[in-house]
Amino acid sequence: MTRPVAVLFITHIFLFSIPSFALDFLYNSFGTITNGTNLTLINDARLESSVVRLTNDSNPFSFGRAYYPQKLTMKPSSNSTTLTSFSTSFVFSVLPAIASSPGFGLCFVLTNLTSPPGALASQYFGLFTNATVPVVAPLLAVEFDTGRNTEFNDPDDNHIGIDLNNVESIKVESAGYYSNSSSNGSFVPVSMKSGQNIHAWIDFDGTNFEINVTIAPIGVPKPSIPTLNYKNPVIANYVSNEMFVGFSASKTDFIEAQRILAWSLSDTGVAREINTNNLPVFSISSSSSLSDDAIAGIVACGRRPIDMTMEDDVEAVLKDWVRELYGQGRLIEAADRRIREEYEIEEMEMVLKLGLVCCHPDPMKRPNMKDVVAILVGADADAATPKELLGELARSGWDDVVGGSRGGGWGDSTEEAPLQPEPPV
Fold it and tell me: Looking at residue 420, what is its pLDDT?
């Protein structure tokens, strides 16, 4: 009779000496995510196509949070002297409607409560009350701050910080990365509020009470030297046995889109690698700025994005002129005469069409970089052609491109302006 009891006792001890629920997940996008099942969205946070938007543009003091539904075990037991280690990586984009407008960025957060009491919007990330009153529950955040608040001793408007129950960071570093290709690891600044996709890595070493934060633009391998390092046993005071893990952001009446595009986390090893090849790219407005792909295609015209007609002093927007020629079946006339004879007509038209497709007013409907490169180099037989992309965009609502008319989804004036077959230099 004693043997079964002993076995049962040993089994009981074994089961309760290891974490009950390990976390290991990978979201290469949020296109198939269900709120409440795969993600918990709080307040103004919402799913928007394949990304998570954390704030609402129309709400002057908007804030939102997105959490993984299952809590992360941070202490194996209540009297544990060490913390659980975990690693996470994610891709985010912060894009203000006006480049010079103040913004605040976003936070990666560990918190006891999905809605910390008294949390404010604006510069408080939707997590904190103010700089002098700590939050009630243990809270640890890594802020990716795109605004400078001198009352919080922010060094600049583009920095990363460690926040322990307080919006004033305990450790701060300017945003950027240390190049792996440089022998001395030279520092490369990175703007976190240009809309570009930023890859972030956070490595939490619970045994040594150490946090490493690393960022780099998409396409740059993870740098070997972290952007920010913070090591201090005091970290243990700001975590509890189990905590929610996720993101939080807030704004004022200035519009700033904070997006999470992908997310990976593991407390059993290194977080799985995110596939960054097909992530959407965001820009302020295609009516006022062209994407890199669009510029690459339209330079084949040999013109600046806006040229001035000398005859009637009317601005002719270059992309409108190219679009109109395409609609009239005269696209080749847009090619720069100085280089037109050096290339096959089909090749020149392909580049012009590709540039035109990349100017679509809706960033979500532009081709991704993989398709662009595959088309240009002819490396992928399965890649869509510019003609196919144009056809697909027309079916999805870009009828004015195929028809050659102005206005519509491009956000231009509905007033017709004469466009010259060949704009002057």
Answer: 34
